[in-house]
Every structure is written in C-alpha cells, then in structure tokens.
Write a structure and sequence with these properties.
26% of the residues lie in helices and 31% in strands. The protein has helices at residues 38-41, 56-69, 71-74, 113-131, and strands at 24-35, 50-51, 54-55, 85-92, 97-108, 139-149, 155-156. The longest helix is centred in the last third of the chain and has 19 residues, at 113-131.
C-alpha cells in the first residue's frame, strides 16, 4: 500500500517484522560535522580540549557509545539491538571543523544505521554542551549516513 516500512496496510505505525530475514554482519558509519568559531578551535591541543567539565572529545566518545546502545529506547519503532561494536573517532579537519565518525556493527537480522546516526548525533551534542561556555556560535551542520554494509543492499557516500 505504501513505501514506508513503519506504516502497516491500515496506515498505522508498526515495527518492521524481521523474523524471516537472514542473519548477516551489518556495519554502518555515520558522520556529524560541527562548525566552531576560531577562538574555540584554538583551545584544542593534542587532539582534545580540557573544559571545566573534563576532556571534550573523550567525554563525547563515551556519550556517543552510550547513546548508540540506547537507540532502541530513543527511536520508537527501532528494534532494540545488542551492539557487537561501536567506535567513535573525532578529529578537526582541514576546514577547522570537528568531524565525528561513529561506526557500529552487529551480526543480526536488521540494520544498524540508526545506532550509528544516534551515536554521532549525541557525540556532537556533547561537544556543543561542553564548549558552549566559550561560544554559542557553534553549529552542528549535519549528521548523515556515510556507509552501510550487510542486509538487502549496501550504501556508500563519498565525502
């Protein structure tokens, strides 16, 4: 009746039934990019910034991993999954932006993209929270799926 996987034939919200899907290794990477004013970027040394709340990037990594593990509780129709792995990498790129990559993996019947997107998003929000005392001119520009493998189809975004 429709192309939305979370709407049933009666037009009502529904969790996708994955009971007949095959188990496979599924990996997804999501990216969040944060623009910061130069005075905030200047505070970063040795790959991190120490704030009154602690090390910014290290705290954001922990927050992102914790959030990835709770995705099924946060997104109403998302399957609750026990992640096999979650890795978060944070660095400052050549444009002086903070780049957060969250890669999640699981061997399961359903994908792991939302867990990667939630992990990257919450890590970005944590960076914002920890740096907002320095400036409110911080913009989380985008969060997007970069890559996914496993399941029915693969996806790979360049840049």
């Amino acid at each position: 009746m429709n192309n939305f996987t979370h709407i049933n034939d009666n037009g009502q919200p529904a969790m996708v039934d994955v009971s007949t899907k095959k188990v496979s290794l599924r990996v997804a990477t999501a990216r969040s990019i944060i623009s910061m004013p130069p005075e905030v970027i200047a505070k970063f040394t040795d790959g991190d910034i120490m704030s009154k709340k602690g090390p910014v990037f290290q705290t954001a990594i922990i927050a992102g991993i914790m959030a990835s593990k709770k995705t099924g509780e946060l997104i109403p129709l998302c399957h609750p999954l026990g992640l096999d792995n979650c890795k978060i990498d944070i660095h400052i790129n050549e444009l002086q932006e903070v780049v957060i990559d969250c890669t999640t993996s699981i061997t399961a019947k359903t994908g792991i993209e939302l867990e990667a997107l939630v992990g990257a998003s919450i890590a970005a929000l944590t960076v914002y929270d920890m740096c907002k005392a320095l400036s409110h001119d911080i913009v989380i520009r985008e969060t997007k799926l970069m890559k996914k493998t496993g399941g029915k189809s693969d996806f790979n975004r360049e840049g």
